[in-house]
Design goal:
Number of strands: 12
Order of helices and strands: HHEEEEEEEHEEEHHHEE
Structural class: alpha+beta
Shape: elongated
Radius of gyration: 31 Å
Low-confidence stretches: 15-19
Oligomer: single chain
Number of domains: 2
Length: 298
C-alpha cells in the first residue's frame, strides 16, 4: 500500500468535509465559552474575597467597656458595672447601624482620648466629637438630602473614608466622633477596641472556605461538562477520518501529528477567544451587585 502524500494528508485533514469544519468551530466555541466562564468565576471569587477583607474592620466587636463586680460566690453581681478607663491605646466604639430609605448605613460612633494612637482603617485617628468621616456614597447621600433628615445626625463633615477600607463604591459607611460620656450610658453596647480586625470571617473562616469550595465545584461542573461535550463532539467522524489516513498508508507519526495539531489549534484558539471574551465581560461582571454592593470599588 502506498504511503499517502503530504498533499493528500493535508487535504483530508483540513478540507475533507463541511462537517469537519463545523465540528472544529463548535469545539473552539465550546472551549472559548468554558474558558471565559472559568476566568469570570475565578475573578468573581477573588473580587468577593478582597471586598470582604477591605470591609473586615466593620465587623470588629472589641471587648467589654465595663467590668461587672462579682459577689463572693463568683456568680452573682455585687454592684453596678464599672467603666474601664479609656487610654491612648484604645477607643470606644458603638456599632449603631442606621436605616435610611430602606438602605443600611454602617455607622460607627467612636470616642477617644486626645493622644489616641488607635488607627481606624480608611480614616486614621478618631474624628473629634461633632465631626464625621463618610464614604463617598454616604457623603453624596447626605449632600442630596435635607440636613434635618440625615446630615444633622452626625455633625460636621471632616473627610472621606478611603476606598481601601470600603466593600464597594456603593457602601454607606460613616464614622462619627462623640464624647466619651455619650458612649458610657447604662444601655450602651459600646466596646473597647485597640486594633481593628482584618479577618472578615472570624471563627467561621473554615466553614466559609468550605462553602466557597462547594459552590465553586457546583458552578464549575457544568462548565467543565460543556468543554468536554465540545471536545468530544464529532469524535466518531474524527476517528473515521484518521482511520482513512491509516488505510491510505500514513505513518502512525503523521496520524498522531494530525490529531495533536487539530486538538492544539482548536484548544488554543478557544482559550484565546475565551480570554478576550472574559476581558470584555469583566466590566459588566464587576458592576453586578452582591448584597447591594458592587464587587469592586469605583
Amino acid at each position: 500500500m502506498m504511503f499517502a502524500s503530504a498533499r493528500s494528508v493535508l487535504h483530508l485533514t483540513l478540507l475533507s468535509a463541511r462537517f469537519s469544519v463545523g465540528r472544529l468551530v463548535g469545539i473552539t466555541v465550546g472551549v472559548a465559552l468554558g474558558t471565559a466562564l472559568i476566568l469570570l468565576l475565578a475573578g468573581a471569587a477573588q473580587g468577593l474575597n478582597e471586598r470582604d477583607h477591605r470591609a473586615a474592620w466593620l465587623r470588629e466587636e472589641g471587648r467589654p467597656a465595663f467590668e461587672v463586680p462579682l459577689a463572693e460566690d463568683g456568680v452573682s453581681t455585687a454592684g453596678d458595672p464599672i467603666p474601664i478607663p479609656l487610654t491612648s491605646d484604645s477607643i470606644l466604639v458603638d456599632r449603631v447601624d442606621d436605616v435610611f430609605r430602606d438602605r443600611i448605613i454602617q455607622h460607627r460612633a467612636v470616642a477617644a482620648t486626645p493622644d489616641s494612637t488607635v488607627e481606624i482603617p480608611g480614616v486614621g485617628t478618631a474624628p473629634e466629637p461633632g465631626t464625621y468621616y463618610a464614604s463617598p456614597a454616604m457623603h453624596e447621600l447626605i449632600q442630596s438630602t435635607d440636613r434635618d433628615q440625615l446630615g444633622d445626625r452626625y455633625g460636621r463633615y471632616a473627610g472621606a473614608i478611603s476606598e481601601s477600607a470600603l466593600a464597594g463604591p456603593d457602601s454607606l459607611v460613616i464614622v462619627s466622633g462623640v464624647s466619651e460620656s455619650e458612649l458610657r450610658g447604662p444601655s450602651s453596647a459600646t466596646a473597647m477596641v485597640s486594633e481593628f480586625t482584618d479577618q472578615p470571617y472570624g471563627g467561621s473562616a473554615t466553614a466559609y472556605r468550605t462553602l466557597i469550595v462547594m459552590g465553586a465545584i457546583a458552578v464549575l461542573f457544568p462548565v467543565l461538562l460543556l468543554i468536554n461535550i465540545s471536545t468530544q463532539w464529532g469524535a466518531t467522524v474524527r476517528s473515521e477520518r484518521l482511520g482513512v489516513l491509516r488505510l491510505m498508508g500514513a505513518a502512525p507519526r503523521v496520524i498522531s501529528s494530525v490529531a495533536a495539531a487539530e486538538a492544539f489549534v482548536t484548544s488554543l484558539a478557544g482559550a484565546l477567544i475565551g480570554l478576550v471574551l472574559a476581558s470584555m465581560l469583566r466590566p459588566v461582571a464587576t458592576s453586578l451587585e452582591v448584597g447591594g454592593i458592587a464587587t469592586v470599588p469605583g
